[in-house]
TrEMBL record:
Signal peptide: none annotated. The lineage of its organism: Bacteria, Pseudomonadati, Bacteroidota, Flavobacteriia, Flavobacteriales. Transmembrane segments: none annotated. Residues 49-84 form the Peptidoglycan binding-like domain. It comes from Chryseobacterium indicum. It holds the Pfam family CHAP. InterPro entries: CHAP_dom (IPR007921), Peptidoglycan-bd-like (IPR002477), PGBD-like_sf (IPR036365), PGBDSf (IPR036366). Residues 148-239 form the Peptidase C51 domain. This is CHAP domain-containing protein.
Amino acid sequence: MKKNQYLKELSITNTQKRNGSNNKKSDVEKIQSWLCLQEMAHPGIGTMTAIDGDFGNATETAVNHFQKFIGATQNGILDQQVFSELCKKVKVAFENVLPNSTIRKTIIDVAQNHVKQNPSELVIRNQSNSGPWVRTYMNGNEGINWFWCMGFVQTILDQAFSLHQKNIFDIMPLTFSCDTVGMKAIEKNALIRNKEIQKNPELVKPGDVVLIRKSQYDWIHTAIVIEVGTDTFTTIEGNTDINGSSNGTGVFKRVRNFRKNTLDVFSLSQWIG
């Protein structure tokens, strides 16, 4: 698997604690990020705190609340054992899926497993599109300009293909750009345009890649197809929100109408049937 940035999100350099001599700002920020993500996933546990790299009283209290939540000793100290519990969702997302009978089925399994872990971005140093989940999908990159929808889609495909000892990047380039993937689909005669889809939705199969088109050669968002209906695709997509934004806040399963919206599809049928 080429996109393995998640491994860097699973550990801290040293045990971190209030005013600790071994405290490292980047580790404390990582801890604070996961504390906030835990509160977002489990509202009311009391772990939301500032992400500023300073392990003070507030962070210590948030750690205590997390330790209470998982049934651990409440000492406010964050060692690797507690951190592994704190960041467990990203480990589950990347390591808890086995290959299914086909690559398409595995793509769906992987995407479903990710969305269940509630991947969400954070605002860090006044920069949206930040945090551990964004970094895992964007090969370590984060910040306001790093829209992460294609990073998410390619992470899902990379993980699924790798489980079958295949390389998705033999089919499409490693990129964060929807336009780059759209143009490669045209080059490989794999792009199904919206008009064709409206005439025959059965051309699209679960596991294919939706590209939301702004103009003929300009695509602004992407998603994994999970189900194909008469008028709609059910998708799993990153960097979206309740309004279907192409610069939202998390990973969600949603329904998009291909008769009311201009949705093209990168079909994988040439390679995986």
